[in-house]
Specification:
Distance between the termini: 11 Å
Largest sheet: 6 strands, mixed
Order of helices and strands: HHEEEHEEHEHHHHHHHHHEEH
Oligomer: single chain
Radius of gyration: 23 Å
Number of helices: 14
Length: 294
């Protein structure tokens, strides 16, 4: 188990440089021609099904189209042979450049061809996009989740691979536990990742998110709003007593570890219960997979 863990750590730690030929390759990644790029017609390339990005058309993409129109594609794409069509290729890293090149009306682009398994392709696509910071918050969170669940990487290993803190990764994964209406607002840019993080452990995240948008609150104001939502009303009968800070800290730690909202109800005498909140069966499946791995 330890050897397998170390192998995964080394594999991710090598990053893209090893896969592009800067370091010795592993058994499943064999170089075709070192780092020598070749020109490939754009219509001989297709997107990878493992691409984590869902959104490509934004201001930065428009700027990329203009740059490629003036200077061409300066950094080669990483591709592998299309397993379904001889003489064609599947993009492992660089789909955004490929799409921009088409809009810039280029007929071919430079690419480095590698022999990669499906597993390698997924891992490289995820890490490459995370390192470039090209993803939306939810795309980033989903990429972290997949790297942890499908490859067994820990938050510490991911933090080193993509240059982020472990707490950043934990906070991003927690966004996946938000209800679909809130995730949609985040995807559409109505709220930011900072707004969304403030909503993770609230009782009414959808209503609060709509209130944030309606009042055009900044992140600090949104955090104040969510704290008021948590606070008990002293003027009402049966108001809740202040929560044990140790229980609140435990909830926070469990939520970060699982990427989902977790509530702990402690009773006198040491008894209590732990509730894991999820919106989709896939999220529960992810919790079960982590428990089995542990």
């Amino acid at each position: 188990m330890m050897a397998a863990d170390e192998g995964r750590r080394r594999g991710l730690g090598r990053g893209l440089s090893a896969l592009l030929g800067d370091a010795p390759s592993g058994d499943s990644v064999q170089p075709d021609s070192g780092r020598v790029a070749r020109m490939i017609p754009v219509d001989h390339l297709k997107p990878s099904p493992y691409q984590p990005r869902r959104h490509f058309n934004d201001d930065a993409f428009t700027a990329l189209v203009g740059s490629i129109r003036d200077k061409g594609v300066l950094q080669p794409l990483l591709v592998r042979a299309d397993p379904e069509a001889e003489g064609r290729f599947e993009i492992v890293a660089g789909e955004r450049r490929w799409r921009a090149a088409q809009q810039a009306q280029l007929h071919e682009v430079p690419a480095v061809v590698k022999v990669l398994t499906d597993r390698d392709t997924l891992e490289v696509a995820l890490v490459e996009n995370l390192q470039r910071e090209d993803l939306t918050p939810l795309e980033e969170a989903e990429a972290y989740r997949r790297l942890m669940e499908e490859f067994g990487h820990t938050q510490e290993v991911l933090a080193g691979a993509v240059g982020k803190s472990r707490s950043h990764i934990a906070n991003m994964i927690r966004l996946l536990g938000l209800p679909e209406p809130v995730r949609r607002m985040l995807d559409e840019g109505q709220i930011s990742a900072g707004h969304a993080r403030a909503l993770v452990n609230t009782e009414n995240p959808v209503d609060l998110a709509r209130e944030i948008v309606r009042r055009d609150l900044n992140v600090r104001q949104a955090e104040d709003l969510t704290r008021k939502d948590h606070a008990p009303s002293s003027g009402k009968a049966g108001a809740m007593a202040p929560r044990d800070p140790n229980v609140a800290a435990l909830e926070h730690e469990l939520s970060e570890a699982l990427g989902l909202k977790v509530t702990v109800a402690a009773k006198k005498g040491g008894a209590g219960k732990v509730a894991i909140h999820y919106d989709e069966p896939e999220q529960l499946d992810g919790v079960l997979r982590r428990l089995r791995q542990a």
